[in-house]
């Protein structure tokens, strides 16, 4: 027989243990718990994936608790603990200051305006990653400084534009910079028009901006001279991208597909990006829209055409004009008509300062009367199509600033404005299957837009 006091204590302990077991969550309940991370800066709540239980826990089914939680808290302690957990943020709140960068501002002056000295600034720009890029500032950008609750610098954010920013954050080891890029949402759009006066006027009336119109002329400019060949009644149809960010229009992207009908001759171009990430326009059967040689190496008007019976304006005698002259302002860049090798670069008699390039298939091009020749142009050096090789001038026998451009095949002068230009490389056979898939998608999209346009036109006529 135990004393009555002992029995009373034992009964009380039994009740306490039973209550503790009933109040403790089972292993099944514990496995369904999920903690949420609250991002105060972004204003978002995220639920991280729950990690699996350890092997010992899975095998034993026991719920491990620490010593402090082994005894049941009082009602007052429990309420206080819950209130503390609910009030504790996952990240400390930061105080942000923003400044719009103006002409004359320096990184040092901006740091001082935010309340930080040059020592802090040097610690930031000497940080890891892209931190040093913070030194390149441009007027119109926005820079923000974040301070923690102790007034220490926690982060610096430089907003380059709506898509790109640089953020330098404090870490345990100092500061670390990272470039952040946002991708806009691309929405396909369609525009079409009939040329009445000029392509630019008709394109604008159809809703195309100048950027897209220039891109359209670049795509078809290899076959169509948009200064001399375009006629009233020519038509164009374009599928292009509108870019949106946060639901607001940001601008326009690339042309995805386009059709141009010039004097009844139809041309269709489709955008394709190869395995190396290079994008270009091709016909539906994989031929490049580009040519190996540019029709014109400069954006300017023709001042004197190719004419083998022309009277020379300086010498006053009949002398064949074996090239085409383009009048342009002094200093206008001159582009290499095609990729190739420099044969000569320097003074060349009446041509003045001139560059001669060797291309494939016996083709050579000459660029004369330059004010100066671009750096790196010397015999034997390689050039790429579109690369600047010199600048318009009036050196040599010239009455004014212009480019004299010659196109020769096996040494024989040919009219560069009418010669059939060699094609650029088509889609390689190794990528033809992939290209056909993309081309089918582009054509299907084009046909859907075109069908809708026709339905709208029919509805308006009714």
Automatic annotation (TrEMBL):
Superkingdom of the organism of origin: Bacteria
Annotated ranges, domain Opacity-associated protein A LysM-like: 96-174
Span of domain Csd3-like second N-terminal: 189-307
Keywords, sorted A to Z: Hydrolase, Metal-binding, Metalloprotease, Protease, Signal, Zinc
Signal as UniProt keyword: yes
Required cofactor(s): Zn(2+)
Keyword set includes Oxidoreductase: no
Gene Ontology molecular function: any one: metal ion binding
InterPro entries to which the protein is assigned, alphabetical: Cell_wall_metabolism_enzyme, Csd3_N2, Dup_hybrid_motif, LysM_Opacity-associatedA, M23ase_b-sheet_dom
Signal peptide region: 1-31
One GO CC term on file: cell envelope
GO annotation, biological process: proteolysis
Region (Disordered): 45-89
Composition-biased stretches (Polar residues): 56-83
Domain M23ase beta-sheet core, residue spans: 320-415
Compartments where found: Cell envelope
Protein name: Zinc metallopeptidase
């Amino acid at each position: 027989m135990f004393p009555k006091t002992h029995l009373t204590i034992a009964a009380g302990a039994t009740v306490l243990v039973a209550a503790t077991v009933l109040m403790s969550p089972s292993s099944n309940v514990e496995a369904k718990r999920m903690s949420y991370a609250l991002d105060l800066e972004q204003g978002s709540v995220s639920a991280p994936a729950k990690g699996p239980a350890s092997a010992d826990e899975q095998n034993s089914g026991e719920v491990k608790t620490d010593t402090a939680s082994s005894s049941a808290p009082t009602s007052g302690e429990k309420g206080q603990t819950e209130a503390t957990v609910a009030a504790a943020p996952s990240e400390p709140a930061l105080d942000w200051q923003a400044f719009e960068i103006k002409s004359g501002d320096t990184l040092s002056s901006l740091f001082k305006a935010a309340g930080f000295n040059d020592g802090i600034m040097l610690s930031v720009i000497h940080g890891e990653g892209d931190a040093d890029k913070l030194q390149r500032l441009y007027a119109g950008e926005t820079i923000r400084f974040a301070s923690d609750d102790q007034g220490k610098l926690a982060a610096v954010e430089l907003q380059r534009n709506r898509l790109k920013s640089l953020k330098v954050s404090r870490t345990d080891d100092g500061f670390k910079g990272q470039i952040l890029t946002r991708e806009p949402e691309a929405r396909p759009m369609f525009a079409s028009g009939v040329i009445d006066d000029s392509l630019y006027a008709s394109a604008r009336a159809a809703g195309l901006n100048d950027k897209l119109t220039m891109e359209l002329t670049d795509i078809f400019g290899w076959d169509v001279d948009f200064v001399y060949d375009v006629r009233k009644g020519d038509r164009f149809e374009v599928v292009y991208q509108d870019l949106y960010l946060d639901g607001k229009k940001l601008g326009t992207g690339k042309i995805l597909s386009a059709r141009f009908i010039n004097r009844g001759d139809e041309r269709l171009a489709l955008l394709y990006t190869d395995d190396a990430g290079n994008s270009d326009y091709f016909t539906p059967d994989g031929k490049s829209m580009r040519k190996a040689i540019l029709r014109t190496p400069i954006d300017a008007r023709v001042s004197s055409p190719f004419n083998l019976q022309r009277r020379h304006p300086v010498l006053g005698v009949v002398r064949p004009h074996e090239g085409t002259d383009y009048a342009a302002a002094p200093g206008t860049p001159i582009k290499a008509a095609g990729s190739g090798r420099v044969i000569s670069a320097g003074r060349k008699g009446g041509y003045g300062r001139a560059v001669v390039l060797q291309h494939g298939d016996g083709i050579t091009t000459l660029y004369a009367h330059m004010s100066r020749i671009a750096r790196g142009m010397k015999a034997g050096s390689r050039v790429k199509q579109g690369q600047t090789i010199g600048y318009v001038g009036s050196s040599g026998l010239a009455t004014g600033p212009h480019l004299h451009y010659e196109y020769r095949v096996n040494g024989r002068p040919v009219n560069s404005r009418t010669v059939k230009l060699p094609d650029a490389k088509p889609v390689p056979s190794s990528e033809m299957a992939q290209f056909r898939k993309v081309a089918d998608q582009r054509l299907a999209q084009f046909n859907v837009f075109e069908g809708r346009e026709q339905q709208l036109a029919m509805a308006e006529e009714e």
